[in-house]
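Bit of a strange request maybe. I'm writing a small parser for structure token strings and I need a real example to test against, not something I typed by hand. Could someone generate the tokens for this chain?
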Amino acid sequence: MTWNCPRCSKSYDSYLSFAHHWSRGHDNTGQPFAEYLGEDKLRELYEKNSENQLAQMFDVSRTAVKKAIEFSDITRRGQSSAEKHKWERMSEEEREQQVKAAHDASRTIPRLSVSKRGYERIRHAKNEVKHHRLLATLLVDDLDELDGKSVHHKIPVWPDGPDEVAMAVSFLDNLEVTNHSDHMKNHIESGDIPRDERTGRFKPRRKTDGS
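Reply from user aminoacidic:
Good idea to test on real output. This should exercise your parser:
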């Protein structure tokens, strides 16, 4: 059996070869598919179906449908409009399944948040890592080098500091790996952890968080 192109009358021995030619269109315009359906029919079908549905309906590629719509000067739906169109045609059960799938997916997407002390945190499910410690993995040759160590900000984190400081604190060249005692000493000498005037002890509210 041979397959003939209604636009250029080319013949093909297999449907696969014909479908490839048909989907591509002439000069990649989508003209064959557009002329095969006609503008009115294509417009009517597109109002009720998505591009993917039309592609499955006529066993052609989505590109062929897209090109045919453009060739016919039919306005294609944008992403939001396409999603609305899809949603309106879903059953109640399908909508519930899509909402559940979206909620399940959101629980597995890493999220960035900022602590009260100004430290950026990346959370994924029940796991959490502070941004500066994640960056510090680039400062060592082996992750074991971070065990029991602090990651010190040369420019300290100020939750209510100027924007340029907030932008600089997590730059890689603002970080250094150090031991806990040296880290504490750095912050004490710089005045980031002041003493209580009455007791002489350092105020715990200002101690570094997760460094």
